[in-house]
Design goal:
Blueprint lengths: L3 E7 L4 H21 L2 E7 L6 H6 L3 E3 L14 H22 L3 E4 L5 H10 L4 E5 L6 H9 L2 E4 L12 E3 L18 H7 L8 E5 L6 H9 L1 H4 L4 E5 L5 H12 L11 E4 L6 H7 L2 E4 L3 H9 L4 E3 L9 H11 L3 E3 L7 H13 L1 H14 L4 H12 L6
Parallel strand pairs: 1-2, 1-4, 2-3, 4-5, 5-6, 6-7, 8-9, 8-11, 9-10, 11-12, 12-13
Protein backbone atom coordinates (compact mmCIF):
# COMPACT_ATOMS: atom_id res chain seq x y z
CA UNK A 1 0.00 0.00 0.00
CA UNK A 2 1.63 3.24 -1.17
CA UNK A 3 -0.72 6.10 -0.47
CA UNK A 4 -0.36 9.60 0.91
CA UNK A 5 -2.42 10.35 4.01
CA UNK A 6 -2.59 13.75 5.70
CA UNK A 7 -4.01 13.91 9.23
CA UNK A 8 -4.47 17.11 11.21
CA UNK A 9 -4.41 17.09 15.03
CA UNK A 10 -5.82 19.89 17.15
CA UNK A 11 -6.34 20.65 20.82
CA UNK A 12 -5.71 22.94 23.76
CA UNK A 13 -2.33 23.83 25.17
CA UNK A 14 -2.36 21.80 28.39
CA UNK A 15 -0.72 18.47 29.16
CA UNK A 16 -4.17 16.91 29.47
CA UNK A 17 -4.70 17.65 25.77
CA UNK A 18 -1.19 17.28 24.39
CA UNK A 19 0.00 14.00 25.94
CA UNK A 20 -3.02 11.91 24.81
CA UNK A 21 -2.84 13.54 21.39
CA UNK A 22 0.83 12.62 21.04
CA UNK A 23 0.02 9.05 22.10
CA UNK A 24 -2.49 8.82 19.23
CA UNK A 25 -0.04 10.41 16.78
CA UNK A 26 2.67 7.89 17.68
CA UNK A 27 0.26 4.99 17.10
CA UNK A 28 -0.87 6.52 13.79
CA UNK A 29 2.78 6.67 12.70
CA UNK A 30 3.37 3.06 13.77
CA UNK A 31 0.32 1.85 11.85
CA UNK A 32 1.43 3.81 8.77
CA UNK A 33 4.92 2.33 8.92
CA UNK A 34 3.50 -1.19 9.17
CA UNK A 35 1.29 -0.71 6.11
CA UNK A 36 3.67 1.30 3.93
CA UNK A 37 1.56 4.45 4.15
CA UNK A 38 3.17 7.80 3.42
CA UNK A 39 1.82 9.73 6.41
CA UNK A 40 2.03 13.46 7.03
CA UNK A 41 0.69 14.71 10.35
CA UNK A 42 0.41 18.29 11.52
CA UNK A 43 -0.79 20.03 14.65
CA UNK A 44 -2.88 23.19 14.49
CA UNK A 45 -4.25 24.78 17.65
CA UNK A 46 -3.07 26.00 21.03
CA UNK A 47 0.23 24.43 22.02
CA UNK A 48 1.34 26.28 25.17
CA UNK A 49 4.82 25.14 26.27
CA UNK A 50 4.58 21.90 24.24
CA UNK A 51 5.59 23.01 20.75
CA UNK A 52 9.00 21.34 20.99
CA UNK A 53 7.46 18.11 22.27
CA UNK A 54 4.97 18.03 19.40
CA UNK A 55 7.72 18.62 16.86
CA UNK A 56 9.89 15.97 18.51
CA UNK A 57 7.05 13.51 17.85
CA UNK A 58 6.94 14.21 14.14
CA UNK A 59 4.38 17.00 13.86
CA UNK A 60 4.76 20.30 12.08
CA UNK A 61 3.12 22.79 14.43
CA UNK A 62 0.93 25.80 13.64
CA UNK A 63 -1.12 28.01 15.90
CA UNK A 64 -4.50 29.70 15.85
CA UNK A 65 -5.87 32.21 18.32
CA UNK A 66 -7.95 30.30 20.83
CA UNK A 67 -10.99 31.59 22.67
CA UNK A 68 -12.89 30.41 25.69
CA UNK A 69 -16.58 31.12 25.99
CA UNK A 70 -17.77 30.74 29.57
CA UNK A 71 -21.11 29.24 30.54
CA UNK A 72 -21.65 32.01 33.06
CA UNK A 73 -21.92 35.78 32.60
CA UNK A 74 -18.52 37.40 32.33
CA UNK A 75 -17.38 40.62 30.71
CA UNK A 76 -14.43 38.70 29.29
CA UNK A 77 -16.88 37.00 26.91
CA UNK A 78 -17.09 40.34 25.09
CA UNK A 79 -13.45 39.96 24.08
CA UNK A 80 -13.69 36.28 23.23
CA UNK A 81 -16.03 36.83 20.26
CA UNK A 82 -13.51 38.80 18.16
CA UNK A 83 -10.75 36.34 19.13
CA UNK A 84 -12.94 33.47 17.96
CA UNK A 85 -13.58 35.18 14.62
CA UNK A 86 -9.85 35.73 14.06
CA UNK A 87 -9.15 32.11 15.01
CA UNK A 88 -11.76 30.88 12.54
CA UNK A 89 -10.24 32.91 9.71
CA UNK A 90 -6.77 31.61 10.57
CA UNK A 91 -8.06 28.05 10.66
CA UNK A 92 -9.88 28.37 7.34
CA UNK A 93 -6.68 29.45 5.63
CA UNK A 94 -4.37 26.90 7.28
CA UNK A 95 -6.73 23.93 7.04
CA UNK A 96 -7.51 24.85 3.43
CA UNK A 97 -3.84 24.86 2.52
CA UNK A 98 -3.12 21.51 4.21
CA UNK A 99 -6.37 19.77 3.17
CA UNK A 100 -6.11 16.72 5.45
CA UNK A 101 -8.18 13.59 4.90
CA UNK A 102 -9.18 13.57 8.58
CA UNK A 103 -9.02 15.78 11.68
CA UNK A 104 -8.53 14.54 15.24
CA UNK A 105 -9.60 16.96 17.98
CA UNK A 106 -8.58 16.54 21.61
CA UNK A 107 -10.66 19.53 22.71
CA UNK A 108 -9.61 22.75 24.39
CA UNK A 109 -9.87 26.41 23.34
CA UNK A 110 -7.62 26.05 20.29
CA UNK A 111 -9.62 23.20 18.77
CA UNK A 112 -12.96 24.86 18.06
CA UNK A 113 -11.95 27.04 15.06
CA UNK A 114 -9.99 24.15 13.53
CA UNK A 115 -12.99 21.81 13.77
CA UNK A 116 -15.26 24.50 12.29
CA UNK A 117 -12.86 24.88 9.37
CA UNK A 118 -12.77 21.11 8.86
CA UNK A 119 -16.56 21.05 8.80
CA UNK A 120 -16.55 23.89 6.23
CA UNK A 121 -14.28 21.83 3.96
CA UNK A 122 -16.28 18.63 4.65
CA UNK A 123 -13.29 16.88 6.19
CA UNK A 124 -14.20 13.95 8.50
CA UNK A 125 -13.69 14.70 12.19
CA UNK A 126 -13.02 12.49 15.21
CA UNK A 127 -13.28 14.09 18.66
CA UNK A 128 -11.93 12.63 21.89
CA UNK A 129 -13.52 13.55 25.23
CA UNK A 130 -11.47 12.67 28.30
CA UNK A 131 -13.91 13.33 31.12
CA UNK A 132 -17.12 11.76 32.40
CA UNK A 133 -18.86 15.12 31.89
CA UNK A 134 -17.82 16.66 28.55
CA UNK A 135 -16.35 20.13 28.30
CA UNK A 136 -18.01 22.88 26.34
CA UNK A 137 -15.64 22.57 23.37
CA UNK A 138 -16.32 18.84 23.01
CA UNK A 139 -20.06 19.42 23.19
CA UNK A 140 -19.77 21.92 20.34
CA UNK A 141 -17.30 20.00 18.21
CA UNK A 142 -19.11 16.73 18.82
CA UNK A 143 -21.99 18.10 16.75
CA UNK A 144 -19.76 18.24 13.69
CA UNK A 145 -17.86 15.02 14.27
CA UNK A 146 -18.53 11.71 12.60
CA UNK A 147 -17.18 9.85 15.66
CA UNK A 148 -16.57 10.74 19.32
CA UNK A 149 -14.23 8.63 21.40
CA UNK A 150 -15.00 8.77 25.13
CA UNK A 151 -12.88 7.75 28.11
CA UNK A 152 -15.74 7.15 30.53
CA UNK A 153 -18.85 5.19 29.62
CA UNK A 154 -21.12 7.81 31.22
CA UNK A 155 -20.00 10.42 28.65
CA UNK A 156 -21.42 8.47 25.72
CA UNK A 157 -24.96 9.75 26.30
CA UNK A 158 -23.86 13.26 25.36
CA UNK A 159 -23.01 12.11 21.83
CA UNK A 160 -25.84 9.79 20.74
CA UNK A 161 -25.09 7.65 17.72
CA UNK A 162 -21.47 8.81 17.54
CA UNK A 163 -19.73 7.72 20.74
CA UNK A 164 -17.53 4.70 21.29
CA UNK A 165 -15.69 3.80 24.49
CA UNK A 166 -11.94 3.98 23.94
CA UNK A 167 -10.46 5.14 27.23
CA UNK A 168 -7.88 7.89 27.61
CA UNK A 169 -4.74 7.45 25.49
CA UNK A 170 -1.55 7.20 27.53
CA UNK A 171 2.07 7.27 26.44
CA UNK A 172 2.94 3.64 25.72
CA UNK A 173 6.58 3.98 26.74
CA UNK A 174 5.41 4.65 30.31
CA UNK A 175 4.50 0.97 30.53
CA UNK A 176 7.74 -0.33 29.04
CA UNK A 177 9.75 -2.67 31.24
CA UNK A 178 12.73 -1.27 33.11
CA UNK A 179 15.64 -3.60 32.27
CA UNK A 180 17.67 -2.78 35.39
CA UNK A 181 14.87 -2.77 38.00
CA UNK A 182 12.61 -5.80 38.28
CA UNK A 183 10.69 -5.41 41.57
CA UNK A 184 8.64 -2.85 43.48
CA UNK A 185 11.28 -2.99 46.22
CA UNK A 186 13.88 -2.05 43.62
CA UNK A 187 11.88 0.99 42.54
CA UNK A 188 11.57 2.10 46.17
CA UNK A 189 15.33 1.81 46.55
CA UNK A 190 15.77 3.89 43.38
CA UNK A 191 14.11 6.79 45.20
CA UNK A 192 16.06 6.14 48.40
CA UNK A 193 13.24 4.59 50.42
CA UNK A 194 13.04 1.55 52.67
CA UNK A 195 11.89 -1.25 50.32
CA UNK A 196 9.79 -2.90 53.03
CA UNK A 197 7.79 0.13 54.29
CA UNK A 198 4.57 1.29 52.59
CA UNK A 199 5.03 4.17 50.16
CA UNK A 200 2.36 6.76 49.36
CA UNK A 201 2.69 8.73 46.12
CA UNK A 202 0.97 12.15 46.22
CA UNK A 203 0.31 13.65 42.78
CA UNK A 204 -0.84 17.20 42.17
CA UNK A 205 -0.04 17.55 38.46
CA UNK A 206 2.52 19.85 36.83
CA UNK A 207 1.00 22.87 38.52
CA UNK A 208 0.75 21.08 41.83
CA UNK A 209 -2.26 21.06 44.11
CA UNK A 210 -1.74 23.65 46.82
CA UNK A 211 -4.37 22.27 49.17
CA UNK A 212 -3.06 18.71 48.84
CA UNK A 213 0.43 20.03 49.51
CA UNK A 214 -0.86 21.79 52.61
CA UNK A 215 -2.59 18.63 53.81
CA UNK A 216 0.65 16.67 53.59
CA UNK A 217 2.75 19.36 55.30
CA UNK A 218 0.23 19.89 58.10
CA UNK A 219 0.07 16.17 58.87
CA UNK A 220 3.68 15.02 58.63
CA UNK A 221 3.71 14.06 62.32
CA UNK A 222 0.78 11.70 61.81
CA UNK A 223 1.73 10.34 58.38
CA UNK A 224 5.48 9.71 58.44
CA UNK A 225 5.61 7.27 61.37
CA UNK A 226 3.30 4.97 59.35
CA UNK A 227 4.11 5.73 55.72
CA UNK A 228 6.88 6.86 53.45
CA UNK A 229 5.82 9.70 51.13
CA UNK A 230 6.94 10.57 47.61
CA UNK A 231 5.34 13.95 46.92
CA UNK A 232 4.99 15.69 43.55
CA UNK A 233 4.51 19.28 44.64
CA UNK A 234 4.32 21.13 41.34
CA UNK A 235 7.20 23.30 40.17
CA UNK A 236 5.73 26.54 41.49
CA UNK A 237 5.24 25.11 44.98
CA UNK A 238 8.42 23.10 45.38
CA UNK A 239 10.60 25.69 47.16
CA UNK A 240 7.91 26.44 49.74
CA UNK A 241 7.32 22.75 50.43
CA UNK A 242 11.04 22.08 50.84
CA UNK A 243 11.38 25.04 53.19
CA UNK A 244 8.48 23.96 55.38
CA UNK A 245 9.59 20.34 55.46
CA UNK A 246 13.13 21.40 56.39
CA UNK A 247 11.69 23.25 59.36
CA UNK A 248 9.91 20.07 60.46
CA UNK A 249 12.95 17.85 59.84
CA UNK A 250 15.13 20.04 62.05
CA UNK A 251 12.93 19.41 65.08
CA UNK A 252 13.66 16.59 67.49
CA UNK A 253 10.46 14.88 66.42
CA UNK A 254 11.07 15.27 62.71
CA UNK A 255 14.76 14.42 62.42
CA UNK A 256 14.33 10.61 62.68
CA UNK A 257 11.61 10.75 59.99
CA UNK A 258 13.54 12.82 57.46
CA UNK A 259 14.43 9.87 55.21
CA UNK A 260 10.74 8.88 54.90
CA UNK A 261 9.74 11.94 52.86
CA UNK A 262 10.87 13.14 49.46
CA UNK A 263 9.39 16.11 47.57
CA UNK A 264 9.76 16.32 43.77
CA UNK A 265 8.77 19.35 41.64
CA UNK A 266 7.48 17.30 38.69
CA UNK A 267 8.23 13.78 37.50
CA UNK A 268 8.10 14.11 33.71
CA UNK A 269 9.09 10.68 32.32
CA UNK A 270 10.11 9.43 35.78
CA UNK A 271 6.42 9.14 36.67
CA UNK A 272 6.66 5.55 35.41
CA UNK A 273 9.23 4.80 38.11
CA UNK A 274 7.24 6.55 40.84
CA UNK A 275 4.07 4.67 39.93
CA UNK A 276 5.85 1.34 40.12
CA UNK A 277 7.38 2.21 43.50
CA UNK A 278 4.09 3.25 45.12
CA UNK A 279 1.86 1.04 47.25
CA UNK A 280 -0.95 3.61 47.18
CA UNK A 281 -1.44 6.70 45.00
CA UNK A 282 -3.19 9.85 46.21
CA UNK A 283 -4.24 12.14 43.39
CA UNK A 284 -6.67 14.58 41.89
CA UNK A 285 -8.94 12.92 39.34
CA UNK A 286 -8.31 14.44 35.96
CA UNK A 287 -8.80 11.83 33.26
CA UNK A 288 -5.09 11.61 32.47
CA UNK A 289 -4.22 10.86 36.09
CA UNK A 290 -7.00 8.30 36.49
CA UNK A 291 -6.04 6.30 33.41
CA UNK A 292 -2.31 6.37 34.13
CA UNK A 293 -2.97 5.11 37.66
CA UNK A 294 -5.24 2.42 36.22
CA UNK A 295 -2.64 1.32 33.67
CA UNK A 296 -0.16 0.62 36.47
CA UNK A 297 -2.78 -1.30 38.45
CA UNK A 298 -2.33 0.77 41.60
CA UNK A 299 -4.92 1.28 44.36
CA UNK A 300 -5.70 4.95 44.80
CA UNK A 301 -7.39 7.58 46.90
CA UNK A 302 -8.86 10.26 44.65
CA UNK A 303 -9.53 13.77 45.94
CA UNK A 304 -11.36 15.62 43.13
CA UNK A 305 -10.68 19.29 42.50
CA UNK A 306 -13.96 20.93 43.55
CA UNK A 307 -13.50 23.88 41.18
CA UNK A 308 -13.22 21.68 38.07
CA UNK A 309 -15.64 22.68 35.32
CA UNK A 310 -19.04 20.96 35.68
CA UNK A 311 -17.45 19.13 38.64
CA UNK A 312 -16.10 16.65 36.09
CA UNK A 313 -13.31 15.45 38.39
CA UNK A 314 -15.87 14.20 40.89
CA UNK A 315 -17.74 12.41 38.10
CA UNK A 316 -14.48 10.85 36.86
CA UNK A 317 -13.56 9.69 40.37
CA UNK A 318 -16.98 8.27 41.15
CA UNK A 319 -17.13 6.21 37.95
CA UNK A 320 -13.63 4.86 38.57
CA UNK A 321 -14.39 4.12 42.22
CA UNK A 322 -17.60 2.33 41.22
CA UNK A 323 -15.40 -0.15 39.34
CA UNK A 324 -13.72 -0.98 42.64
CA UNK A 325 -10.33 0.56 41.84
CA UNK A 326 -10.29 3.61 44.12
CA UNK A 327 -11.82 5.37 47.11
CA UNK A 328 -13.06 8.94 46.73
CA UNK A 329 -12.66 11.53 49.47
CA UNK A 330 -14.22 14.90 48.72
CA UNK A 331 -11.95 17.76 49.65
CA UNK A 332 -14.47 19.15 52.13
CA UNK A 333 -14.38 15.80 53.94
CA UNK A 334 -10.61 15.45 53.93
CA UNK A 335 -9.15 15.12 57.42
CA UNK A 336 -6.19 13.20 58.76
CA UNK A 337 -8.57 10.82 60.53
CA UNK A 338 -10.55 10.05 57.38
CA UNK A 339 -7.45 9.77 55.25
CA UNK A 340 -5.56 7.51 57.64
CA UNK A 341 -8.53 5.20 58.11
CA UNK A 342 -8.94 4.90 54.34
CA UNK A 343 -5.25 4.33 53.64
CA UNK A 344 -4.95 1.79 56.47
CA UNK A 345 -7.99 -0.08 55.19
CA UNK A 346 -6.52 -0.33 51.68
CA UNK A 347 -2.98 -1.26 52.72
CA UNK A 348 -3.69 -3.55 55.64
CA UNK A 349 -5.49 -6.25 53.68
CA UNK A 350 -3.62 -8.08 50.93
CA UNK A 351 -6.87 -9.27 49.36
CA UNK A 352 -8.37 -5.79 49.35
CA UNK A 353 -5.28 -4.28 47.76
CA UNK A 354 -5.11 -7.04 45.16
CA UNK A 355 -8.79 -6.62 44.29
CA UNK A 356 -8.33 -2.87 43.75
CA UNK A 357 -5.28 -3.49 41.58
CA UNK A 358 -7.19 -5.99 39.46
CA UNK A 359 -10.11 -3.58 39.11
CA UNK A 360 -7.73 -0.78 38.06
CA UNK A 361 -6.14 -2.90 35.34
CA UNK A 362 -9.56 -4.00 34.12
CA UNK A 363 -10.70 -0.35 33.91
CA UNK A 364 -7.58 0.76 32.02
CA UNK A 365 -7.58 0.88 28.25
CA UNK A 366 -3.92 0.45 27.28
CA UNK A 367 -4.80 0.18 23.57
CA UNK A 368 -6.86 3.40 23.51
CA UNK A 369 -4.39 5.33 21.37
CA UNK A 370 -4.12 2.53 18.81
CA UNK A 371 -7.91 2.11 18.64
CA UNK A 372 -8.42 5.84 18.09
CA UNK A 373 -5.69 5.96 15.43
CA UNK A 374 -7.39 3.10 13.59
CA UNK A 375 -10.71 4.98 13.65
CA UNK A 376 -8.99 8.07 12.22
CA UNK A 377 -7.72 5.99 9.30
CA UNK A 378 -11.24 4.69 8.68
CA UNK A 379 -12.54 8.26 8.50
CA UNK A 380 -9.68 9.14 6.16
CA UNK A 381 -10.86 6.38 3.80
CA UNK A 382 -7.92 4.06 4.51
CA UNK A 383 -9.06 1.34 6.95
CA UNK A 384 -6.24 -0.47 8.72
CA UNK A 385 -6.99 -3.84 10.29
Amino acid sequence: MNSKIRILFTGGGTGGHIYPLIAVAVEAQALAAGKGIDLEIRYLGAYGPYRGLLEKNGMRVGGVIGSKLRRYFSLTNLFEGPKMLIGMLQALVKVGLFRPQAVFSKGGPGALPVVWAAKFYRIPILVHESDAIPGMTSLWTGRYAQKVAVSFDSAAKYFPGKAFLAGNPIRKYLLAEEPEIKTQEGFKKFFGFDPQAPLLLFLGGSQGAVRLNNFVLQNLRALLPKYQILHQTGTANYDRVVREFSGFAETGEGAPLKSRYQPVPYFNDDIRLAMRAADLIVSRSGAGSVFEIAAFGKPSILIPLPEAAQNHQLANAQEYAAAGAAVVIKEKDLSIETFSATADSILSGIENKAAMSEAALKFSKPEAAKEIAAEIYKLAGTPIS
